[in-house]
Design goal:
Blueprint lengths: L1 H7 L2 E5 L12 H13 L4 E4 L11 H15 L5 E4 L5 H11 L6 E5 L8 H13 L5 E5 L1 H4 L5 H10 L3 E6 L4 H10 L5 E4 L5 H6 L4 E4 L6 H12 L3 H18 L6 H9 L16 H29 L1
Helix pairs in contact: 2-3, 4-5, 5-7, 7-8, 10-11, 11-13
């Protein structure tokens, strides 16, 4: 299974937001527009119902509607990964039956949260879950949200013992741990950055791509950066990375997806609406984001002018 999956999920995936209207209802028109926009600007695959989608605030029927909208708009143009997680292994397995009604290409499943399982518990959880499906499964390690770190040795054991566990989205920020995974992983096992800010160093060290929050707002820039790294064009990738660093830092200052929604609302792509307990970023941070967007626009125009002059 792994060679095919490796080709499918290398590069840039975008963790799609869920746009809301001011009254709190899902804005399916904006969601469909977002799917078209990221596809048209070069992303390699889509992640539906990940953390960035505000998944915990969506009712079960809303989750189905969001996934259905993404799949219908995508119309099989790109592979689609779907998030599926929770603190109860058996309940997650029951969710697999429901998910079988949707034509998705892989599952991204976060470590069980709240009950803080041991490493042995994580092995047992993932072996049980993976055995219940024939679909490709990606692990998702984000201890800042789950209070549970999937250690490198644990990930490697799961990868060796579960043939359909084909990769991991690593968002721990623990560079030593991630580098150990890259160095020791089985052939074909994908290590994907889950942190926009760390993607350049991780991919330069051998990671296989990025599942990005920032690509909701800047799909072309993030796609170009990731694809430059894949082609070993590090100077070009570094230039884009440096342009995006200040906005990327601001994107996560007051939580995600509040930051990227602030950016996208300033770009008139969505309403700046979230569901409680999440709220929009502070006025101070919003003003800072607007200022950085203006600066980035000016820089982009300067580069565009230089390219035109070089062509003459």
């Amino acid at each position: 299974m792994r060679p095919d999956v490796q080709n499918t999920f290398k590069g840039l995936g975008v963790a799609l937001i869920t746009p809301f209207k001011r009254d709190g209802q899902i804005d399916f028109t904006r969601l469909s527009e977002l799917v078209d926009r990221v596809i048209d600007n070069g992303v390699d695959y889509l992640l539906a119902l990940g953390t960035t989608s505000e998944y915990p605030t969506l009712a079960p029927d809303e989750k189905d509607d969001v996934l259905r909208c993404i799949l219908e708009t995508n119309a099989k143009r790109l592979p689609v990964m779907v998030g599926l997680g929770g603190p109860n292994t058996q309940f997650m397995i029951r969710k697999l039956d429901h998910l079988s009604a949707f034509d998705v290409d892989a599952i991204l499943t976060v470590t069980p949260y709240y009950n803080k399982p041991s490493q042995a518990g994580l092995v047992a959880h993932y072996k049980t879950f993976a055995a219940a499906t024939d679909m490709p499964v990606f692990l998702y390690n984000v201890p800042g949200r789950t209070s549970c770190n999937l250690e490198a040795a644990t990930t490697l054991r799961i990868a060796e013992e579960c043939p359909n566990v084909v990769g991991i989205k690593e968002a721990s920020g623990m560079m030593k741990q991630i580098l150990q995974l890259i160095a020791k992983r089985p052939e074909g096992f994908l290590v994907i950055s889950g942190d926009d800010l760390l993607t350049l160093p991780l991919m330069a060290a051998g990671a296989d791509g990025l599942i990005s929050v920032m690509a909701n707002a800047f799909p072309k820039k993030v796609a170009d950066m990731v694809h430059h790294i894949m082609r070993q064009e590090l100077d070009e990738a570094r230039a884009i990375h440096q342009q995006l660093v200040p906005l990327t830092i601001d994107c996560f200052k007051e939580g995600s997806p509040a930051g990227v929604k602030a950016i996208m609302s300033a770009m008139s792509l969505i309403d700046n609406a979230l569901r409680l307990p999440l709220v929009p970023v502070s006025d101070k941070l919003q003003e800072e984001i607007v200022g950085l967007l203006r600066f980035l626009s000016q820089i982009s125009q300067i580069f565009a002018d230089l390219r035109r002059n070089n062509l003459r």
